Structure formats: C-alpha cells, structure tokens
Amino acid sequence: MAVENYDVVIIGAGPVGLCLSTCLSRWGYKIKHIDNRPEPTATGRADGIQPRSLDLLRNMGLKRQIMAHEPAKVYEVAFWDPSSKGGIVQTGTWASCPKFIDARYPFTTLLHQGLIERVFIEDIEKNGNTVQRPWTITGFKNDGKDATHPVEVNLAHVDGTHSETVRAKYLFSGEGARSFVRDQLGVKIRYKDPIAHVWGVMDGVVRTNFPDIKMKCTIHSDAGSIMIIPREDNMVRLYIQVASSTDKDWDPRKQATAEEVQEKAKAILKPYEITWDRIEWFSVYPIGQGIAEKYTLDERIFMGGDACHTHSPKAGQGMNTAFLDAVNLAWKIHHVESGWAPRSSLSTYESERQMIAETLLDFDARYAKLFSTRIPSAGEVAGASAASTEAEENEFIKTFKASCEFTSGFGVAYNPNSINWSSEHPAQHPLLLQYEKGTKLRTGRIMIPATVTRVVDANVVHLEQEIPLNGSYRVYIFGGALGQTATALKDLASHMSAPTSFFSNFLYKDIDATDRYHEKHNPHTSFLSLAIIINAPRAKIHIDEQLPRILARYADHVYADDVWDLRVPDAKAAAHAKVGLDEEKGGVVVVRPDGYVSAVVKLEEGSGTADALNKYFGAVTGKSLGGERASL
Ligand SMILES: Cc1cc2nc3c(=O)[nH]c(=O)nc-3n(C[C@H](O)[C@H](O)[C@H](O)COP(=O)(O)OP(=O)(O)OC[C@H]3O[C@@H](n4cnc5c(N)ncnc54)[C@H](O)[C@@H]3O)c2cc1C
C-alpha cells in the first residue's frame, strides 16, 4: 500500500498539539493528528487561561467560544493567614493582573481543559483535519529517504488491531510529560529544583460559610496550606500539597484519598465550615520541576508543552505555556514551508521557548517559596497593587510585580536574535529604532495595546487585535500628522513597489489574475498584513485622497488615532504616544505573526524607511532585498 504523505504528524491532542494543529490547519497544511485517549479530557487538569492567552485566543477568533462556557473570572486574589485568635483571617487582597500591566482582559479565565480542547477540535475539523483516536506512535525516524517528507512515522491503534506508516515533513510531540518521542530521541529532562511535591487537586460543588469561596485564595493555617480557585458551573477547585521532598518521610508515590483531602481542607478552613455536594474530579499527582535539554535534534522532529517542561500547577502556567510554544513553532514552520524564511530560522523555536521555560521554572520555584514561607502583610499587598512607582519597593513587592507580569503572560520577552532586531542584528540601518531611543517598544515583547477608530466604519477598535493570527508579519505604519508625513508615506509606498523590496518580493504570483477584492488582510501577499494609523480625527481622514494607492488598498486597516487613553492622558495621538513614536512624524512597527515586536523604523522622506525595512526583512528571509524604483 502506498505510504501517505503529510505536512506534519502531531502526537497528542492536549493544549500544545491542538493549538499547533489549529494554526497549521487554518493555513492549509495536511495534518495527521493522533491521540491515545478515546475522548478529549473529560474533567479536571489545567483550567487557568491567563490574560495574554486570552488575547491570543481572541486573535485566533476563539475567545467567544471559550466565553460561551461562562467560565469563572479571577480579578483578585485573597490572602488568609493564621489569626492570633485562632482559625484564619483575611490579611489582604490584590489584583490578579494589576493596573501597571496594560492588559485588555485583566483577569484569569477558569475553565476545564476538556472544554478548551473541544473549542480547538471543532476549529481543526472546520478546516479539514481531525484527531484520530485512540491511536499511538510506535516508532519514527528521520531517514531522509524522501527529501520533502524525510520523517517516517509508525502509528497504531491502541488495541493493536490496526497500524499505519506515514511520511511527513515534520513530526511534533505534544505527548505531555511522558513522551515516547522524547525518550526515543534520548533527550534528557534536567530537573531544576531538587524539591518535588505531591499535589492533591479536587474540583467540586461545595456548601460553605467561608466568605471568599468565589475568589482565588491562598490560605495558610496551622493545619496546612490550601489554594482555592473558583470554576465554571458553580464549582470550586482546591489545591492541597500532600507531600514535599523536604518532608522527613518523603515519598513521591504518596497518595491521599478524596476523604483525606476533604478532612484536611476542613481543618485548614476552621472556623469556617465546608461540605461537598459532589466531587467532579480528584487527582493526586507528583510534580517535579523539569526541562528538556533539547526541543529538537534535527529541526524536523520537534517537541513542546509538557513534553519539554513540567512545574507546579499553582500559578496556572502549563496550558498557557503550551499555547505559546505551539504558536511560536506554527508560524515558523509556515514561513519555512512557504519559502519566505530559511530553514535555519526554525532554530529560534528552541532558543526562544526553552529560555521562557527556564524563566518559568525559576519563577515557579520562587513563587512556591513566596507562598509557602513568606506571608505578605496587607500593607505590602496594597503597595504592590498600586499603579504608582513611587512606593518604596521591598523584595516582596518587586517579586510580586515581576511575578504578576510573568503569570499574566505579558512578561514573556524574547532575546535579540535573527527575528528580534537589536543593535547586534545582521540588519543595520540608521533609521532602525531601539527601546527608549525613539520608541517605547521593545523587540521580543508583545505589541503595546492601543484603541483607535477604524476609518471606514467609525468603529472604535483594539488596534493590536485588528490583524488576526494569519501567519503574516504585521506592519503598522504610524503615519503621524499627514501635513508632515504625506511625502514620507508616498516615498515609502513608492519604494515598497520596487521589484525587489520587502513588499514586492513576496507578492502573490497570480496577483493580476485573481480577484481579491474582498481580501482585507492580505490583498497583495500572505507574508505581510499592513495597518496605517493616522494622527487625525476620523472625519478628517479621506483614504483614497490622502494615502498612496498601495496603502489605500488596506482601507479596512486604516485608523484614526483619535481615542483618548488614560495611560497617556496628555497625548493628542494616544496610540502613537503609547508606542513612543513621535505623534507628528510617526514611524513603522514590524510585529511578528505571534504578536511580538520585531523591529521599529523611523518614517522619513526618501528611500530610508523602505531601505531599513528591506534590510530587516532581507536578514529575516535570507533574501537580497532592495533595489530600483518601480510602481505596482
Ligand atoms: C493529572 C494532571 C493534573 C493536572 N492538573 C493541572 C492543574 O490543576 N493546573 C494546571 O495548570 N495544570 C495541570 N496539569 C498540567 C496541564 O494539564 C498541562 O500543563 C497541559 O495540559 C500541557 O499541555 P500539553 O498539550 O503539553 O500536554 P497534555 O495536556 O498532557 O496532553 C498530551 C496528550 O498527548 C496524549 N498522548 C501522550 N502520549 C501519547 C502517545 N504516545 N500517543 C498518542 N497520544 C499520546 C495524551 O493522552 C494527551 O491527550 C495537570 C496535568 C496532569 C497530568
């Protein structure tokens, strides 16, 4: 029988595998996706979607489906400590995502993993792929026998009745902590923190007179510690540490029954009372802080999610990190397979995501210590939650701030590399701007959010959400005041239309033959989506008269920077001010397909701006860009 070829074989339909499959299915790839469970997660497991992940899900058009399940939302965390009078007392609350973080959704969304998995599965099926269950992987090799599909993968039904051999361009393991692929590759897990824990997790519906049962709470009492997390459907999750390697009688296989955990919870919550109407899910499982030494050996077989990093569930990071692993790899595979980027760019998946996992594990160790050993006073908590930077910051407040930024997902910062421009980048040009030298944007960090008015329909919109996760680089042209920048914009458009520019080089081959009248995001090329933001009231912007023809083609992405913003109250053009570009002169911001800033360029008359962009995209794509002037 002929061996079937696939673009990607994905093993595991947890958050990482599903998110990767969703992106690649949408972008037209042929995926073989298997999972060894007969059904998606029925109950329990990961449940916290952090603010940055919600942004990402919105950018993927999936937020509405998640919210349709009416998840619990955590805006504040309450701290309960032993009371001098016996029992426990609330010592303070703080914002889950404090005001100093510029987040659209400053809360954690709580919903069980299985419902989230189903949202992705529906999308995958809509785009022509499916998850084949219950199937497992029995072998694989990158034998290179077929140059375009170098990886052979052997798959089998879990009951052993059927098997299948396929070939693929890539194999991805999203198998979770126990990865067959990782073991076969001989990739070791490095255990970071020698301290390991056994956790008990219980989801259920309770009756209680504990007043903060609808809040996220960390409770320390003389009888032990517990974390409470509100959930969808009137449920509550309790996390209880059952054992720690610091215990005298440490046993990583230590178990606890549901009744034992309930008794412990009752003792910790005293003088309040708690009983259970029903238990939805209960699990006791050991957690070690581990990180895979490699995420790939050959840039054909990749791993991500829990297969690469495990840590405590307390900060609700596992699923969120898995999503970001998946999106990071998805667009890079897409760019290589589209011929836009060299194969070498795939190495940035491991360097970027492994560094984030290292940061996560360091944070996880500090976080566990913070909550286990140091109980913050109400005064410290209040100081940390304020937006002001004037308060004298002690170690705790600093750790809290850094932690909140990280746990919300906004602390993710990729280092300079071939994609994230820096003064060491192979592309250099005097118009490329650095952080605090002409812009507030930092390459490798998420684009700062801004609210603007869409010119064509006068809708007030979130600029950073306007271009969906479509695999394209996003080029935001902050046009400043047209009275000053009209010539610069005309020059930019003119140099963009030169045959070997960063723009023309990637035009659709059938650009003249195919009708793309209704295409909003990618009318010229799938490589780039453009947006133009102008410092003027909406009614004063006349797209066809004021913008060069190429830019006017992005009419659905032309915005008036005329919405006042609390964070820059004195600015006339708040979006310009927030990203730190001159409100009159503007600038150009290049953002990676996953929303992280990659380069910022001055907007000037002449060829300079296009030259700088040619340099940047030339280095990113490995192509020689820039050349003579022409027009589309
Ligand atoms: C028991 C348990 C409880 C957890 N509780 C929490 C929690 O309370 N809070 C929290 O934040 N995180 C929790 N986590 C962690 C969280 O679920 C993960 O961080 C997150 O799911 C990572 O996603 P992933 O896609 O990498 O892996 P997973 O979600 O583990 O998905 C891996 C998938 O691959 C499948 N698979 C594995 N091997 C194979 C194979 N050889 N062939 C085919 N399919 C395979 C599995 O069946 C599974 O569907 C828990 C994990 C476990 C195991």
Verbal overview:
This protein is an alpha/beta fold and 632 residues long. It folds into three domains: 4-71 and 111-189 and 290-358, FAD/NAD(P)-binding domain (3-Layer(bba) Sandwich), CATH 3.50.50; 196-286, D-Amino Acid Oxidase, Chain A, domain 2, CATH 3.30.9; 445-621, 3-Layer(aba) Sandwich (Glutaredoxin), CATH 3.40.30. It has an eight-stranded mixed β-sheet with strand order 6-5-13-14-15-12-16-18. Strands 1, 2, 8, 9, 10, 11 and 17 form a seven-stranded mixed β-sheet that branches. The two termini are 49 Å apart. Residues 374-381, 387-394 and 628-632 have low confidence and may be disordered. The site of flavin-adenine dinucleotide has 32 residues, from helix 1, strand 9, strand 16 and helix 7. Flavin-adenine dinucleotide (FAD) binds at residues 11-17, 34-37, 45-48, 113, 136-137, 174-176, 180, 201, 283, 285, 305-306, 313, 316, 318-319, 322. Keywords: FAD, Flavoprotein, Oxidoreductase. Belongs to the PheA/TfdB FAD monooxygenase family. One of its GO terms (molecular function) is FAD binding. Pfam families: FAD_binding_3, Phe_hydrox_dim.
